[in-house]
Amino acid sequence: MCVGCGPDHPTGLHVTVTAGEGLTVSGSFTVTDDHQGAPGLAHGGILSLAFDEVLGSLIWLIGEPAVTGHLETSYRRPVPVGTTLYIGAAIDRVDGRKIYMSASGRENAVDGPVSVTASAVFVVVPATHFVEHGRAVAPSELSEAAAKVAEVNP
Ligand SMILES: CCCCCCCCCC(=O)SCCNC(=O)CCNC(=O)[C@H](O)C(C)(C)COP(=O)(O)OP(=O)(O)OC[C@H]1O[C@@H](n2cnc3c(N)ncnc32)[C@H](O)[C@@H]1OP(=O)(O)O
């Protein structure tokens, strides 16, 4: 039920992500009427969510839980409803518990015009972070997350 990537979420973004070379991922997200802000255009906060999701996927490559500490988004072109954004993201450097990342989103093709760019700092946390701070979760939710790590790092 993740609002970013959950396939069963009724109005979520349904972001899909694929691991790339080195510490990179590529993702895509199609803007629907559920994601509209101004008439006919994607809501900027929704676009930030898409970037948070794709950037957050980078943590599966290093196998340590981390959460978004800082996320900065630059909106360079309006994104019409119906657009598919192709988002490329990379880990730029790691400094202690801080993971510095960047990403850019292109309109309707991997080499399309750049619509949005983002940079982020994720902070590594202990696995207990989610149990201590979240609502009580079913064991199946945790095992699904663990299975995702195994899928990326078999
Ligand atoms: C099962 C896994 C699933 C993963 C799914 C990913 C989903 C997508 C990503 C998200 O949306 S996560 C949800 C949104 N983010 C949050 O809810 C985070 C809320 N904030 C916190 O929990 C804490 O503030 C945080 C863990 C980020 C930091 O608290 P700590 O007390 O652990 O950090 P500490 O103060 O010890 O600082 C450690 C280092 O991180 C740095 N830091 C802390 N907060 C920061 C921040 N906000 N921005 C940048 N850097 C930060 C801090 O300066 C320091 O750097 P140095 O080591 O160089 O001194």
UniProtKB/TrEMBL annotation:
PANTHER family reported in the protein's UniProt record: ACYL-COENZYME A THIOESTERASE THEM4
Source organism superkingdom: Bacteria
Major enzyme class: hydrolase
Protein name per its UniProtKB record: Acyl-coenzyme A thioesterase THEM4
Domain Thioesterase: 40-102
MF term (GO), any: hydrolase activity
Tagged with keyword Cytoplasm: yes
One GO cellular component, as annotated: membrane
Protein family membership: Belongs to the THEM4/THEM5 thioesterase family.
Catalytic activity: (5Z,8Z,11Z,14Z)-eicosatetraenoyl-CoA + H2O = (5Z,8Z,11Z,14Z)-eicosatetraenoate + CoA + H(+); octanoyl-CoA + H2O = octanoate + CoA + H(+); hexadecanoyl-CoA + H2O = hexadecanoate + CoA + H(+); decanoyl-CoA + H2O = decanoate + CoA + H(+)
Source organism: Jiangella asiatica
Cellular localisation: Cell projection, Ruffle membrane; Cytoplasm; Membrane
Keyword terms of this UniProt record: Apoptosis, Cell membrane, Cell projection, Cytoplasm, Fatty acid metabolism, Hydrolase, Lipid metabolism, Membrane, Transit peptide
Keyword Transit peptide found: yes
Phylogenetic classification of the source organism: Bacteria, Bacillati, Actinomycetota, Actinomycetes, Jiangellales
Single Gene Ontology BP annotation: fatty acid metabolic process
EC number: 3.1.2.2
